[in-house]
Task: structure prediction
Amino acid sequence: MEKGIKLKVKEDCFCEGYLHEKCHYPRYWLKEKKLQKNDVVELKGEWSNFYGTYFRVIKEGEYYDLLPPNLEEVV
Result:
């Protein structure tokens, strides 16, 4: 997908980076990073690791790393 396109969140979901931090390095001051169904975000990039491929998106100045199946193109 091209950077800068608008994507819509299919289902309520958390940022994958936030989930990793919450599960492996729990700290009480972590800010919950959750997106709601039908939120519109902008694609900033794509990255991969041994666990999968992620889309880095931005909404209102906040970055999120989401799994591609959680997103669809805005028509």
